[in-house]
Amino acid sequence: MKRVARSVSPFLVLALTAVWLLLNQTLDLAQIALGAVLAVGLAWSASALRPVQTRLRRLDVALALTMVVLADIVSSSVAVGRLVLAWGHAREFRPGFLTIPIELRNPYGLAALAVIVTSTPGTVWAGLSPAGDALTLHVLDLKDEDEWIRHFKQRYERPLTRIFQ
Amino acid sequence: MNNLPASAAGFAALCFVGAMLIALLRLFRGPSAQDRVLAFDTFYVNGTLTLLMLGIRTASTVYFEVALLIAMFGFIGTTALAKFLLRGEVIEP
Amino acid sequence: MITWTLPVWAALPVTLLLVCGGTFSLIGALGLLRMKTFYARMHPPTMGATLGVGCVLIASMLLSTAILHHPVTHELLIMLFMALTSPISAMTLMRAAMHRARTTPSSSGYTGP
């Protein structure tokens, strides 16, 4: 069996401790200690599953991106709701697949991108090309493909590249 | 004015139950297997929300644990079903 | 049935959030019936899983904080869990549907790559 170099990610330890405290609804010192011990153990046993290490370089950009994504979720929910309730001519929209060339290579960045795209109503992640240079999305209302690609790259891909690379 | 939030909770609970009924309709009607899995996904999400509404109406935290459990098992169920559709088996050798 | 009353600062946002969350979830589920193809049906239920869950959980947090007079943040856990899991199941389902359409094209109206 191959030995894996293991390192415990401090971010994961912090997050797991926070989840433990939330679950118990307490800020007791003993509970914090127990949570921290559990979190270190869990993070150590999970480290074999995450061989690629990465680091958030720009926390301010990450925060701004979160705000942009929340606003986009609200606005695209309203847009999708209108399509669902549409009657007559307004129902003639065109769902379809859209292929976007992409420069982002960091696996964590790509995972974040997939979560962003899928949790926004109106777009679902439909796969990455084997070479990793193009991704496919399914879009509910595909009006103008070039406009979509430009919007996508400027809003999501550029900040993620700045955060992870 | 005082029971405005309570009526809103009742309205939201009705909405979620309605959404669950619609999802059940899609679950029975199909037509394809992936449609049924998608309907199941919608069904359990709205079930979790209905339970949270019950918790709000009765001002108790008992329902929270139930909601968390339904969310967890619903996710595991949906993913296992989708994986089965993808490969024909859930755990690959 | 109603065993609690709320101060006005909490009552108004709670009412608004609950009504929004319920409406969005119902419209999302309605999309399951009204959309014509499977791929189009993938989109509307996402509304319930993101905006519906978010609205309801913020309302629930506000409400239990206002009633119990100390911050209650249990609900953040469900929000976190849903935010992490619903994209995963949606992506797996999308891949399964594309795979099935490729191997047995008669099962749905597949028009993609």
Describe the structure.
The complex is a heterotrimer of chains A (about 160), B (about 90) and C (about 110). Chain A is built from five helices and three strands; from the N terminus they run αααβαββα. Chain A is mostly helical and about 160 residues long. Chain A folds into two domains: about 10-50, no CATH class; about 60-165, no CATH class. In chain A, α3 (about 60-85) runs antiparallel to α5. The longest helix of chain A is centred in the middle third of the chain and has 27 residues, at about 60-85. The two termini of chain A are about 30 Å apart. Chain B has about 90 residues and is mostly helical. Chain B has one domain: Helix Hairpins (Orthogonal Bundle). Chain B has three helices and no strands. Chain C has one domain (about 10-100). Helices cover about 75% and strands about 0% of the residues of chain C. Chain C is built from four helices and no strands. Chain C has helices spanning about 10-35, 40, 45-70, 75-105. In chain C, α1 (about 10-35) runs antiparallel to α3 (about 45-70) and α3 (about 45-70) packs antiparallel against α4. The radius of gyration of chain C is 19 Å and the shape is elongated.
**What radius of gyration of chain B results from the CA coordinates?**
16 Å
Kindly give the count of domains of chain C: 1
Question: Would you tell me the overall average pLDDT of chain C?
Answer: 80
Give the overall shape of chain B: elongated
For the report, how would you describe the main beta sheet of chain B? none
What gap, in angstroms, lies between the N and C termini of chain B?
Answer: 61 Å
- Name of the CATH architecture of chain B: Orthogonal Bundle
Say what the CATH topology of chain B is: Helix Hairpins
The proportion of residues forming helix of chain B, as a percent range, comes to: over 70%
Number of DSSP helical runs of chain B: 3
Summarize model confidence as the mean pLDDT of chain B. Answer: 85
Uncertain regions of chain C: pLDDT < 50 for 5+ in a row? Answer: 107-113
Structural class of chain C: mainly alpha
- Helix-strand pattern of chain B: HHH
